[in-house]
Write a structure and sequence with these properties.
Number of helices of chain B: 21
Order of helices and strands of chain A: EEHEEEHHHH
Helix content of chain B: 25-40%
Shape of chain B: globular
Shape of chain A: globular
Largest interface: A-B, 58 and 63 residues
Oligomer: heterodimer
CATH superfamily of one domain in chain B: Aldehyde oxidase/xanthine dehydrogenase, molybdopterin binding domain
CATH class of one domain in chain B: Alpha Beta
Strand content of chain A: 15-25%
CATH class of the largest domain in chain A: Alpha Beta
Distance between the termini of chain A: 49 Å
Structural class of chain B: alpha+beta
């Protein structure tokens, strides 16, 4: 298929509250569009086959893997990425909890971990440790052994509930 | 002159300075890095395990849209002759003591004559986008002449096997013998003997960030800049200089934020050199980001050893003599030579007294991905053998596993303890400090003790449930040489600037080095500027691997600081108009001893130290405030730990559930307890992944069957239990801070702890688990076979 020049398509979407319009090949992955076309490199691609969860974003408010979606599928969508989490230089309570509990080491999975945790806590604002572990099994971390991630999410939950 | 070390920050659980950028999406990993006119590379990788390359046709790829350049292995070999095989770089002191033979095949940047594993790179395609480069790579055709795949390491060593590196006429590319005492005589006398075979399977580091390289060549100055996801920027610089034929001074090698390494990024890969080569050839910057499938089929794997052991012991369970004949399956290449295999040999004794032992190791080349150090680097394999043996002796003599260990352990009052064999630096192994029996007690207490467990186990068995206890003890040589560098400078602002050859991937070195340097200079950590992983900051460095950076980096910073402080104090005294003996470092400056308020700031001292007229230096003191020190450790310092776990095994489904997991650990002086716990837990989680889930499987044709994360199972949050940590601190006398390495330790014990615990749980069935990973089907099979026998 490579001798066929692919037609470009328009993609209009809102990322972190800001409208964007871009053009790309229809096959372009959403993660690549965010990173290359919009310059939002905080969303990471760890496996490019939908397993590791490093590329997790909020897609119309729900956690989704941006490496197994095409950018064109996000046309008209509201997206939140890691860059949209801290407001006015203040860390989000979940980011703050990750810092205090040493819930990140290399930081590569962290954006996906945070976005997945936000969706989870929106759905389940007062989870048990077991529920946190089950939910966070959606994102792989190779550094922390998850222990401090679980602690940070449990610590952030009441603060997020209070601020929502 | 007084230079006292305060410990205001070392030992404190300080949160990390690295976090803010990483938490907000403002970290910069290699994939995030871009340059104007950047081109993108994709590799053509071998679909077969073993074959001669007849020809490579790039024509269709070169015509594909967006493609600017393509190069095949045979094409490259015509431009750059492949590097000839060389001698392994081993210390003369080691070579003179150990009977050994190592062959050292050099992997070319692209395969040109043969391919030796599925995934080996044969050609590179460079295009305007990664999509276009990958499309075009699929259009490259390679004509192969297939050869028999060598997949089994034992079969590889037989005379009738196909040979990977034909110049040697053998697949035995490494062999050595390590002996202590007279094992044969001890065996002849012994009343009890046992023999077993152990297999520690193949798995790997799998950092969440794959490998990646960006390189740009500047024609004007004939210089190259290389950014890569590596643990060893100075090594990259050195090899790139040789390959490109330009001086090291014209090469800058940088690691940005690195998304995990764990050893797999701890040496120079062919791709690290080929991308700079291609960037110079095309005259534009070139980027390569490895995809996950590529990572699984081309970044180094690890472990993969078969041990045939024989142990002689007395009526009390004391080991009298030990023989181990083992094979390391090193895959197609052996980038770190003797490293893993010899690590295994010297870590076999662990915390126990071994008066007589004989080890024979062979390294087998096979048609698999190359084997290189990964967190533990030969030690998990040693622990599997020795710690299973302890349990087997216990079972044979109807003793408890902790009792057999206690009887064999080196006692605290016997430290320092000379092991009677050399480490890989050639120095005699001496356990420098520690208390192993105390670690054993602490770990056992944390899981409730063996006696209480046996009661619980009996009660559970009466209900048809199967619980088991597993122990794993180890010692670990850490902070190995040959050296690490540090430069310390007093900035004109008065801040302390520090750089080193240490090269982080998430350990938090910016934070801990700031803590250490803050104490050395009596300043706040926020007054310490830490710059790492950039060869333009310091010309000579070693890198991060082998649990060494806190040990060797801190010592280099200490000694560089102490030298520089002499000068700072003499200039400070000059400004304060007193004798150098009357001043001390305090409050971010120099003050007169016993006279509060009489201080001069480091900024003023830096100003006074400048070259030129009207400076404030006393006579005879040279200008500038900077010192570089290369710390050469006398030898390694020994960390130690005991892991204890209680598991429940479901014999119907084969599922292993970890009920309790405690780790009693000793790594000397603790710099940052928060980060220390993170290292231990992270390592232990990787170890459990290896114990139960992760596995590289090859079929008989050398095809990797676990080439995606759907097949290669990494542990998730729901697979990993809460680890309970107990700390013990036996500072080492071998470095200024008394620190020992900790990066790898956590990963060493879990495979054998699980093997022991599952064997204990299934002891009524007579089951033994002497290979890893422990898979559900093995458990179900063992339980059924055992039930049928009863």
């Amino acid at each position: 298929m490579t001798d066929v020049t692919m037609d470009q398509v328009d993609v209009r979407l809102t990322v972190n509250g800001k409208p964007y319009a871009g053009r790309c090949e229809p096959r372009k992955l959403l993660v690549d569009f965010l990173r290359e076309d919009l310059g939002l490199t905080g969303t990471h691609a760890g496996c490019e086959h939908g397993i590791c969860g490093a590329c997790t974003i909020l897609f119309n408010g729900e956690a989704a893997r941006s490496c197994i979606m095409f950018a064109v599928q996000a046309n008209g969508a509201q997206i939140t990425t890691i860059e949209g989490l801290a407001k006015g230089g203040e860390l989000h309570p979940l980011q703050q909890a990750f810092h205090e509990h040493h819930a990140l080491q290399c930081g590569f999975c962290t954006p996906g971990m945070l976005m997945a945790a936000i969706d989870f806590l929106n759905v389940n604002p007062a989870p048990t440790e077991h529920e946190v572990r089950e939910a966070m099994s959606a994102v792989l971390c190779r550094c922390t052994g998850y222990q401090n991630i679980v602690k940070a999410i449990l610590a952030a939950a009441p603060k997020m509930k209070a601020s929502s | 002159m007084t230079i006292a070390t305060e410990t205001r920050y070392v030992g404190r659980p300080m949160a990390r300075r690295e976090d803010k950028r990483l938490l907000t999406g403002r970290g910069q990993y290699i994939a995030d890095f871009t340059l104007p006119r950047l081109l993108h590379a994709a590799f053509v990788r071998s679909p077969v395990a073993h074959a001669r390359i007849r020809s490579v046709d790039l024509a269709r790829a070169l015509e594909a849209p967006g493609v600017v350049y393509a190069l095949s292995g045979p094409g490259l070999a015509k431009i750059v002759p492949p590097v000839s095989d060389s001698q392994l770089s081993l210390p003369a002191k080691w070579k003179s003591q150990i009977q050994h033979k190592f062959l050292n095949p050099q992997q070319p940047m692209l395969a040109h004559d043969k391919v030796r594993h599925v995934g080996e790179a044969i050609a590179i395609v460079v295009a305007e986008s990664r999509y276009a480069a990958e499309d075009a790579a699929e259009l490259v055709t390679v004509d192969f002449d297939p050869l028999p795949a060598v997949v089994d390491a034992e079969a590889a060593l037989k005379p009738d096997s196909a040979v990977l590196h034909e110049q040697y006429k053998t697949n035995t590319i490494g062999e050595f013998v390590l002996r202590k005492g007279d094992a044969d005589a001890a065996f002849a006398r012994a009343r009890h003997k046992l023999r077993r075979r152990f297999h520690h399977h193949r798995y790997a580091a799998i950092p969440m960030e794959t490998r990646g390289v960006v390189a740009t060549y500047d024609d004007r100055t004939d210089s190259m800049t290389i950014w890569s996801s590596t643990q060893v920027v100075h090594w990259v610089k050195r090899e790139a200089a040789t390959m490109l034929g330009i001086p090291e001074a014209r090469i800058r090698s940088v690691a940005l934020d690195v998304g995990g390494g764990f050893g797999v990024k701890g040496h120079v890969y062919p791709e690290d050199l080929l991308i700079p080569f291609v960037a110079r050839a095309v005259g534009q910057p070139v980027k390569w980001i490895e995809d996950r499938h590529e990572h699984l089929i081309s970044a180094c794997h690890s472990r993969d050893q078969i041990h045939d052991i024989e142990v002689a012991f007395d009526d009390d369970g004391r080991i009298l003599a030990y023989r181990d004949d083992y094979i390391v399956d090193c895959g197609a290449w052996n980038p770190i030579g003797s490293g893993i295999a010899y690590n295994t040999a010297v870590h076999l004794p662990g915390p126990y007294k071994f008066d007589h032992f004989a080890v024979h190791a062979r390294i087998a080349a096979t048609n698999k991905v190359a084997n290189a150090p990964y967190r533990g680097a030969g030690r998990p394999e040693a622990a599997l053998v020795t710690e299973r043996v302890m349990d087997l002796i216990a079972r044979e003599l109807r003793l408890e596993p902790d009792e057999v260990r206690r009887r064999n352990m080196i006692r605290a009052d016997e430290m320092p303890y000379a092991m009677g064999v050399p480490y890989r630096d050639g120095q005699p192994i001496v356990y420098d400090s520690g208390d192993f029996p105390s670690l054993l007690k602490k770990a056992l207490d944390a899981v409730g003790g063996v006696e209480a467990f046996r009661k619980r186990q009996r009660e559970a068995r009466a209900q048809g449930r199967h619980l088991g206890v597993g122990l794993g003890c180890y010692t670990e040589g850490t902070g190995v040489g040959p050296f690490e560098s540090a430069t310390v400078r007093v900035d004109p602002s008065g801040k302390i600037y520090v750089t080193s050859g240490a090269c982080p991937q998430g350990q938090g070195m910016e934070t801990i080095f700031a803590q250490i340097v803050a104490d050395l200079w009596s300043v706040d950590p926020s007054d310490v500027v830490v710059q790492l992983a950039d060869t333009s900051a310091i010309a000579i460095g070693f890198g991060t691997m082998a649990s060494r950076s806190t040990v060797t980096g801190s010592a280099a910073m200490h000694d560089a600081s102490r030298r520089l402080q002499k000068k700072v104090l003499s200039i400070g005294a000059n400004l304060l108009e007193c004798a150098a003996g009357d001043v001390e470092l305090r409050k971010g400056g120099v003050g007169i001893v016993g006279v509060p308020g009489a201080e001069v700031s480091l900024a003023k001292i830096a100003h006074a130290a400048r070259p030129g007229w009207d400076n404030g230096r006393p006579q005879g003191v040279e200008a500038g405030l900077e010192e570089t020190y290369y710390w050469e450790p006398p030898t390694v310092t020994w960390s130690s730990a005991v892991h204890a776990a209680i598991v429940e095994v479901d014999i119907g489904t084969g599922k292993v559930t970890v009920d309790k997991y405690a780790i009693a650990h000793d790594c000397g002086t603790v710099v940052n307890p928060l980060l220390l716990d993170g290292q231990i837990v992270g390592g232990a989680a990787q170890g459990l992944g290896g114990a139960l889930l992760e596995e590289f499987n090859y079929d008989a044709q050398g095809q990797l069957l676990t080439g995606s994360l759907m097949d290669y199972l990494l542990p998730t949050a729901s697979d990993i239990p809460e680890f309970q940590l107990i700390h013990q601190s036996s500072p080492t006398p071998l470095n200024p801070l008394g620190v020992k390495g900790v990066g790898e330790g956590g990963a060493i014990s879990p495979p054998v702890v699980i093997a022991n615990a599952v064997s204990d749980a299934l002891s009524p069935f007579g089951a033994e688990f002497n290979s890893t990973p422990i898979k559900p089907e093995q458990i179900v099979r063992a339980a059924r076979a055992g039930a049928a026998r009863r």
